[in-house]
Write a structure and sequence with these properties.
3-stranded mixed sheet
């Protein structure tokens, strides 16, 4: 069963590691010179995957992480709701 708490815990653990970096070129959890890289959307993809969300199915069966441009289509397929910026944010919202 998917767990946003497990996804959140994974994200916190990764953020606390010394060898995590940001790169759009190496975005797919690629390790270069001892640093494992994500970009914004791939980080969310891997966090949700760690939380047992079916991110592969939501991304049309692709094992390559979704991107910022197609996240809005993929996330509702795994139970997330798109909100307008006028609504108050709640715990578990992805920005």
């Amino acid at each position: 069963m998917p767990s946003i708490q497990t996804a959140y815990n994974w994200a916190i653990e990764k953020c606390n590691e010394d060898n995590i970096g940001y790169s759009q070129s190496y975005r797919n959890q690629r390790t270069v010179n001892g640093i494992t890289y994500f970009d914004c959307s791939s980080f969310i993809w891997y966090a949700l995957k760690a939380g047992a969300f079916d991110v592969v199915k939501s991304n049309g069966g692709s094992i390559w992480p979704f991107t910022t441009s197609n996240m809005s289509r993929a996330l509702p397929l795994i139970g997330f709701t798109k909100h307008s910026t006028a609504q108050p944010w709640k715990q578990g919202d992805i920005l």
